[in-house]
Amino acid sequence: MKVVIIEDEKPAARRLNRMLNEFGIEPIAMLYSVEESINWFYNNEHPDLLFLDIQLSDGLSFEIFDEVAIKSAIIFTTAYDEYALKAFKLNSIDYLLKPIDNEELESAINKYKNLQQTSQNIGFDIEELKSLITSTHHQYKKRFTVKIGQHLKMISVELIECFYSENKATYIHTTDNRSYLIEATLEQLEEKLQPELFFRVSRKFFVNINAIKDIIAYSNSRLKLVLKTYTTSEIIVSRERVKDFKNWIS
Predict the structure, then answer these.
(1) CA 38 distance to own-chain centroid
(2) Averaged pLDDT, 175-203
(3) Is 71 helix (H, G, I), strand (E, B) or coil?
(4) C-alpha–C-alpha distance, residues 92 and 96, integer Å
(5) Cβ-proximal residues to 243 (8 Å cutoff; 6+ apart), any chain
(6) CB 78 within 8 A of CB 54
(7) How many domains does the chain fold into?
(8) How many angstroms separate the CA atoms of 209 and 206, rounded?
(9) Are 52 and 63 in contact (CB under 8 A)?
């Protein structure tokens, strides 16, 4: 079985590669962008099966189909539940919700093999799927712009440990242990932050899951968070948010 992975996050691509190796599958290529994928498909024989991330660094992966008639079966990978809820209920299409689970990966591979053995059609209407995806796609913020004197600085969300409010203002705290004022309230950030990455633990804080250094039991069934660099004030997960927080980190 010839397999290709298209995934813009290299650690995620390497992880999927290792997981496939455990099932005796050695991907013939790992591609990281729309442009790189288009070039590869123009110059190589199409694989049997394609693991395709939806959101790539230079656009939606469906742009590949605008340039190349893909002949491969496709298993989509996505971090967005909204995609899974609607777009992947179509016949003979499977999806894997990131982070990918071993059992779900095995199930998707077996589904593909079974479709092959029974000679069922593994094609699909890409235009229909593209329409469903783009209609439900929620564009989360990838970066924030802050003003420093006469200069503007762009900060990628991956470099943000937390957002916090103080004296009726909202700040970003970054991994280099600096804080910047932004022109938004925490309420306005609710719709702008990717929920897999950020969680609002209280009225005062949104935290990045990758910035959490320690979680400590606290009074009144609450939790205290220790981040990698932010130490200005205590970050307490409010009691009514503890259950959702535990689900978020699990």
Answers:
(1) 22
(2) 92
(3) coil
(4) 14
(5) none
(6) yes
(7) 2
(8) 10
(9) no
Residue whose pair of structure tokens reads 């777009």 in the numeric block: 87
Single out the residue of 136, 130, 124 nearest to residue 93, CA to CA: 124
Task: Say if CB 13 and CB 30 are below 8 A apart.
Answer: yes
182 is in which domain, residue-wise?
A: 143-249
For 46-64, what is each residue's pLDDT tens digit? Answer: 999 999 988 888 878 878 8
Q: What is the dihedral of CA 139, 143, 144, 147, to 10 degrees?
A: -150
10 Å CB burial of residue 47 (0-12, 13-18, 19+) is: buried
Contact 92, 122 (CB under 8 A): yes
> Do 72 and 188 lie in a common domain?
no
Q: Report phi then psi at 14, rounded to 5.
A: -65, -40
Parallel/antiparallel/unpaired status of strands 212-218 and 205-208: unpaired
Give yes or no for a cis peptide into 27 (omega within 30° of 0): no
What per-residue confidence (pLDDT) applies to 92?
Answer: 41
- Residue of 155, 145, 181 lying closest to 166 (CA atoms): 181
Instruction: Name every residue whose Cβ is closer than 8 Å to that of residue 159 and which is 6 or more positions away in sequence.
Output: 174, 175, 176
Q: What does the DSSP 8-state code read for residue 206?
A: E
94 shares its domain with 172: no
Per the CB < 8 A criterion, the answer to whether 161 and 228 are in contact is yes
- 36's CB contacts (< 8 A; 6+ apart) are none
Reported pTM: 0.52
DSSP SS3 for 64: helix
Closest CA to 160 of 178, 148, 183, 140: 178
Neighbours of 151 (CB within 10 A): 7
**Domain shared by 120 and 15, yes or no:** yes
